[in-house]
Design a protein that fits this description.
heterodimer; A: Folate-binding fold; 13% helix; 31% strand; globular; B: FAD/NAD(P)-binding domain; seven-stranded mixed sheet; 25 helices; elongated
């Protein structure tokens, strides 16, 4: 069970949280302008990298706040936690494994 | 009861002043406090303790610890306390302990299924896949049930567990698994550094090897090790930052150093005792973990190496020195290493005749000389080739290693000790994804790189002497404390006097066992896997060690192959002509030893399984004889039966009362969310399908929420209390989900919106008063609100007082009748409810439950999200296109509604169904077909979602989702039945009653 550093409450056990899947998927500002394929891409398509994954977590049994988290999907190490609306730390998004799907 | 025949007069750590009576297999014996069941049995000369898994071979006690594969017993303590698969080697003896052997019928000494041993050719590796294939129908009916009855370990208890189990969370900087010399040393170093330390030891006493053989084999600081041990434990006990947990097994190391501990609180006695739990399960989050689990000794793999009276040498050392048991008088020790020689001398001095048969051609001179001087006979370059003896070994065959075709020489004995070398117990380290590396010198795997902050110490780290183990423990403890942020240097280790560290020459199995020999040379004693099975698996093409494991089941028992796995790897490596390191290891998984389900469940059973939520009016409903149903965690009154009524009768009466006079429902469980902020209306506009910005203050509106995929997610009525303040209601089951959903959008997608959501479900009690006479019932209790139709029209709300307390009254309806939902602060709920019951008496007010509520809304065609929808249903499918705004350019889910697939005319749509026989009530969930004569499998075009007998209409009604349903009005469809002919139905509108809504606007 992961130990997740909630930016508001401190480190807490994974059972207190809910994972909200991949982070940084912006809702298209004008959905009507999108083709079915583009809309389906927003709706359903997610990365499944072997490496660094940026994901959203919700402290459901705690402060009820959402935040972003960078986790290595192989080692399960948590590499960074950062607020909603911010991009991932530059050194992580630039890491060679960050983009690799595997 | 006589003193045990094999018990020595002196020595050991048993308390001779405290004799204990116990029974095994129906016979009474005597042991002492401090014994385990295994040591007490051996003291009484009992070696035969069980039958093996597959061949029902007689088996004895192989080890003196948690790695025991054979000596598994069923312990009966009365009151439903029945524990299968209990290791006799770790079960502390207590008075009146009653244990039974497992896996034998009719009895231990004569087991009918021992015939399996003669049928051994039928049970080769993978026998499941080979032997019982024909005829196919026999597998399910005959083969599988018989095999299951014949094999298997123990029997599951049949009665409820009477004991309590607790869970406990803890945090520490350094958790140490194992309280032997290395673990104690690590605890000393980490505790002195100031770290919070937990030291867990599975046995009742700390000390490990020092409690047994170590006590006579070494001296610490010039004294017997007991002195060092006592001093160290006193220091740890006195330290406020160190917690000692005896009788506590570290069974699992998980991600981010979550460590699972099983503490035996009341299991080492007949019953836990008043107020005590049986086990306590600890979930410890440790900054650093030190694994000091020691080493495990391997058997030698030779034909018939499994008879009772054949045990590991280290186990015999423990029985001799810790429990004062001399388990044999004529002893042959077969070995490939030096670790047994000291023991051989001890046994000789205790009165046994001892021969060491060493497989090595040359034994270190000092070792051999010392043993001979103590009266031990020594044979070198000798291999064990077989054994004899039914219930106990009486002969071992030895043959010279180098001679060509020499016949084995029988050697009379009553005890065979074997040692194939020792390997670190790396289960915890490897569970936590630590890497292993091969060490040729030790002929075993050693810990390599840890994945989580963790290190091994002592035997688990490959040390082979006490001095090394203590020094390594001190180093590891200090290093762990340092890594956790404390400044620490390893304390100076005490001087240790002991013999030279042992050496070995690997011998994975006696040559020939994996191919030719018919006699069984066991590798995995619990799973009855022989060297030949491994060889066969390889010859049949299984190469990967993971495949070999699954095909032969080696390493898959409750002991997880603790004693057998490395021999299996060595044999596979030998057969394949590879180094052992190249074969690799199978994955180590938690738990290290079995954990009772009771301990995992902990207190979460019965009333504590799930929280129960009750409304403020619950007590009233209970007193009124309500039958309750579970809706999520809520207890809701389902119906209120009167004398002699069943549910159908009660519901018909309740429903008629609502349509003809007036009814009252406790609707407090409805989810309620208070939404505030200047952008609240805009926010609702985005999450509901219809328009909200222009909703007047004082008005209510029904809303439908969609997922972004366009499917109906929840529904409810929301009222505008002020420009910037709304009261949202959700389905009972969806309240938490909806709140989380709203927070998700607000926090992650639209942080610019100034909106705050608060759950107020439990702050308000809600009473629905509904029916043609609802107004008359309510009027005498209401202040400050004009209930007249013009002043208080449908879909509005008013604030006032009801029965003297502040109230929000919503004029909304889920029954199709004139309805008022009265919301009052929860503390007043019961008061208002009782006042309304009184006020309603002259008007025929009838209290009703959820079943009637469902029926009444179905008559009106009102959906219930989750019953008439299932996550694949759009508003258009429901015929609710009217609630989807044409003007709004965007709301959650809108774009998906225009995907081509969601526009298909043959999507399942909500319709009404009327059975041709009006008395016939369809089953909810029943499938619908077009052609009743179509051969099976029939094409299913939909299913029934709601179905009731309607008293108002005097006939049954149903709602259904049917492909292209709205175009099928008037069509005749069929609902096939499990028993009987299909039922004919006619497709209709889902609104059965008052389609114009005239009864609402009165």
């Amino acid at each position: 069970m992961l130990r997740i550093p909630c930016p508001f409450c401190g480190p807490r056990a994974e059972i207190e949280f809910r994972c909200g899947g991949e982070a940084h998927i912006r809702r298209p500002p004008d959905p009507e302008a999108l083709s079915d394929a583009e809309w389906a891409d927003y709706l359903f398509m997610r990365r499944n990298p072997k490496g660094i994954h940026f994901e959203r977590w919700f402290h459901a049994h705690g402060c009820q706040r959402w935040f972003n988290l960078a986790r290595h999907t192989v080692s399960d190490r948590i590499l960074a936690v950062y607020p909603m609306g911010e991009g991932p730390p530059a050194e992580l998004s630039a890491a060679p494994e960050a983009g690799a799907d595997g | 009861m006589a003193e045990g025949v094999a018990r020595l007069e002196r020595g050991g750590r048993i308390d001779r002043a405290k004799p204990l009576r116990f029974r095994f297999d129906g016979r009474e014996y005597l042991g002492y406090a401090g014994d385990t069941l295994a040591s007490a049995l051996l003291a009484n000369g009992v070696h035969l303790v069980g039958r093996s898994f597959k061949y029902h071979r007689p088996r004895g006690i192989l080890t003196a610890g948690a790695e025991e594969p054979n000596a598994l017993v069923r312990v009966e303590r009365g009151d439903g306390r029945s524990d299968p698969n209990t290791r006799a080697t770790t079960l502390p003896l207590f008075n009146d302990l009653e244990a039974f052997p497992q896996n034998c019928r009719p009895g231990l000494a004569f087991d009918l299924l021992a015939v399996n041993g003669l049928l051994a050719p039928l049970f080769p590796a993978g026998f499941y896949y080979k032997t019982f294939m024909w005829p196919p129908a026999f597998w399910k009916r005959i083969y599988e049930p018989r095999i299951r009855a014949a094999a298997g370990l123990g029997e599951a208890p049949r009665r409820p567990d009477p004991d309590r189990y607790l869970h406990r969370f803890a945090h520490c900087e350094v958790l140490i698994a194992g309280g032997g010399p290395a673990g104690i040393a690590a605890a000393l170093a980490a505790t002195r550094a100031g770290a919070r330390v937990i030291l867990a030891e599975a046995q009742p006493a700390f000390g490990g090897w020092l409690l047994g053989e170590g006590a006579v084999r070494a001296r610490i600081g010039g004294e017997a090790p007991d002195a060092w041990l006592a001093e160290a434990l006193a220091e740890l006990r006195a330290a406020p930052n160190c917690r000692l947990l005896p009788r506590t097994t570290v069974f699992g190391c998980y991600d981010h150093n979550l460590v699972g501990l099983l503490e035996d609180v009341g299991d080492h006695r007949l019953a836990p005792g008043e107020g005590r739990p049986r086990h306590r399960l600890w979930k410890v989050r440790a900054t650093e973990v030190v694994v000091a689990a020691g080493m495990i000794e391997r058997p030698l793999v030779f034909p018939a190496n499994d008879r009772p009276g054949i045990m590991l040498a280290g186990a015999a050392a423990t029985y001799l020195h810790r429990y004062a048991v001399l388990p044999g008088r004529e002893i042959v020790v077969v070995t490939n290493n030096d670790s047994v020689y000291g023991l051989a001398g001890d046994l000789a001095e205790a009165g046994a005749r001892v021969t060491v048969a060493d497989s090595r051609r040359r034994v270190p001179e000092a070792v051999a000389t010392a043993a001979r001087a103590r009266g031990v006979a020594l044979l070198t370059g000798v291999l064990p080739a077989g054994s004899e003896g039914r219930r106990r070994v009486r002969q071992i065959h030895l043959r010279p290693r180098d001679a060509g075709i020499t016949l084995p020489v029988p050697h009379a004995c009553d005890l065979v000790l074997m040692s194939g070398g020792w390997h670190p117990d790396l289960a915890l380290f490897a569970q936590a994804r630590g890497g292993l590396r091969w060490d040729g010198d030790l002929a075993a795997f050693l810990p390599d790189r840890a994945h989580w902050p963790m290190r091994c110490a002592g035997g688990a780290n490959g040390t082979r002497s006490l001095a090394e183990a203590i020094a390594d423990g001190l180093r590891a403890g200090a290093a762990a404390a340092r890594a956790a942020g404390f400044s620490a240097e390893p304390p100076t280790p005490p001087p240790v006097e002991e013999g030279p560290a042992w050496t070995l020459e690997p011998l994975w199995c006696v040559p020939g066992c994996s191919t030719r020999e018919r006699a069984k040379a066991f590798v995995d004693f619990q799973q009855d896997v022989t060297a030949r099975d491994l060889g066969l698996a390889l010859r049949e093409g299984y190469e990967s060690i993971e495949h070999v494991k699954r095909y032969t089941t080696t390493g898959m028992g409750t002991d997880q192959g603790k004693t057998g796995n490395l021999n299996a790897l060595g044999i596979v490596a030998g057969e394949r002509g590879l180094p052992v390191a190249a074969v690799g290891v199978t994955t180590f998984r938690q738990p290290w030893t079995p954990v009772p389900f009771g301990a995992l469940v902990g207190p979460h059973r019965g009333a504590l399984f799930d929280p129960v939520r009750r409304t403020p009016m619950h007590r009233w409903a209970e007193a009124a004889g309500a039958v309750f149903e579970d809706v999520g965690q809520w207890k809701r009154a389902r119906y209120f039966p009167r004398e002699g009524e069943d549910m159908a009768a009660a519901v018909q009466r309740e429903a008629r009362a609502v349509r003809e006079a007036c009814g009252m429902l406790d609707a407090s469980t409805l989810g309620k969310i208070d939404i505030r902020g200047p952008d609240a209306a805009e926010f609702l506009n985005r999450v509901y399908t219809n328009a909200w910005t222009k909703l007047a203050v004082g008005a209510c509106r029904y809303g439908l929420m969609l997922g972004e995929d366009g499917m109906v997610f929840d529904d409810g009525v929301t009222a505008r209390l002020a420009e910037d303040h709304f009261h949202m209601t959700t389905t009972t089951g969806g309240a938490a989900r909806v709140l989380a959903w709203l927070e998700n959008w607000l926090q992650t997608e639209w942080p610019e919106l100034r909106v705050w959501c608060t759950s107020v479900t439990e702050q308000w009690a809600t009473v629905t008063v509904t029916g043609p006479r609802a107004r008359e019932v309510l009027r005498p209790l209401v202040e400050e609100v004009d209930l007249g139709p013009a002043a208080f029209p449908h879909m509005t709300f008013r604030t006032g007082r009801v029965a003297g307390v502040p109230a929000r009254i919503f004029r909304i309806s889920f029954t199709g009748e004139l309805s008022f939902e009265v919301n009052v602060p929860a503390g007043y709920g019961l008061h208002v409810w009782e006042a309304l019951v009184e006020a309603g008496r002259p008007h025929g007010l009838t209290v009703y439950g959820t079943e009637t509520m469902h029926l009444l809304r179905a008559e009106k065609g009102y959906i219930i999200v989750g019953q008439d929808t299932d996550g694949t249903v759009t508003p258009f499918d429901l015929g609710m296109g009217w609630i989807v705004s044409r003007k709004k350019r965007d709301f959650v889910g809108r774009r998906s509604l225009f995907r081509s697939d969601l526009q298909r005319p043959d999507r399942k749509q909500l319709v009404g169904l009327l059975t041709e026989d009006p008395a016939r009530v369809l089953e909810e969930g029943a499938q619908i077909v077009e052609d009743p004569n179509e051969p099976v499998p029939m094409r299913m075009i939909g299913h029934v979602t709601s179905s009731y007998m309607s008293p108002t209409l005097g006939r049954s009604i149903a709602l259904a989702l049917v492909a292209g349903g709205r175009e099928r009005g008037g069509q005749r469809l069929w609902v096939p039945q499990l028993d009987g002919p299909p039922v004919a139905v006619e497709v209709t509108s889902p609104v059965f009653y008052d389609p114009a809504g005239e009864r609402l606007h009165v």
